[in-house]
């Protein structure tokens, strides 16, 4: 049985996984074909996740899930810039590409 924990921001249930690098990643509990995270339960019962690639595509025992940060309504609101604030990302990219 999956152990779901509420998100601190939106209170929706999330499934916490451990990535190949040993980091923790929250994913939405229901599989989503548009997701980019392969999730499976290993032999010890731990929920593991990884990013499928061309070299190692989705395996039969894995299901695609969406990372919760991509669907959390509170996070998407936090990522939007307030009115009157300009993003400098494009400017910084131009500066980095000077010869």
How would you portray this structure in words?
With 99 residues, the chain is an alpha+beta fold. The chain has one domain (4-96). 19% of the residues lie in helices and 25% in strands. The chain is built from three helices and six strands, in the order ββββββααα. The protein has helices at 68-71, 73-79, 89-96, and strands spanning 4-6, 13-18, 24-27, 37-41, 47-50, 63-65. The strands form two sheets. A three-stranded antiparallel sheet has the order 1-2-3, with no helix packed on it. A three-stranded antiparallel sheet has the order 5-4-6, with no helix packed on it. β2 and β3 (24-27) form a beta hairpin. The longest helix has 8 residues, at 89-96. It is globular. It starts with a strand and ends with a helix. The model has no long low-confidence stretch (mean pLDDT 87).
Features of the shown structure:
99 residues, alpha+beta, 3-stranded antiparallel sheet, 3 helices, globular
How would you concisely characterize the structure shown here?
The chain has 99 residues and is α+β, with helices and mostly antiparallel strands. The chain has helices at 68-71, 73-79, 89-96, and strands at 4-6, 13-18, 24-27, 37-41, 47-50, 63-65.
Question: What is the helix fraction of residues, given as a range?
Answer: 10-25%
Widest β-sheet, arrangement of strands:
1-2-3
SS class = alpha+beta
Number of domains: 1
What count of helical segments does DSSP give?
Answer: 3
Shape summary? globular
User: How many runs of DSSP E, i.e. beta strands?
Assistant: 6
Distance between the termini: 56 Å
Q: Calculate Rg over CA atoms.
A: 17 Å
Tell me the strand percentage band: 25-35%
């Amino acid at each position: 049985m999956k152990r779901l924990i509420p998100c601190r921001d939106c209170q929706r249930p999330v499934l916490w996984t451990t990535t190949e690098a040993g980091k923790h990643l929250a994913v939405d509990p229901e599989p989503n074909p548009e997701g980019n995270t392969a999730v499976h339960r290993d032999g010890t019962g731990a929920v593991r996740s990884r990013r499928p690639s061309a070299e190692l595509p989705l395996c039969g025992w894995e299901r695609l899930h969406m990372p919760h940060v991509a669907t959390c309504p509170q996070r998407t609101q936090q990522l939007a810039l307030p009115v009157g604030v300009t993003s400098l990302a494009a400017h910084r990219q131009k500066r980095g590409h000077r010869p």
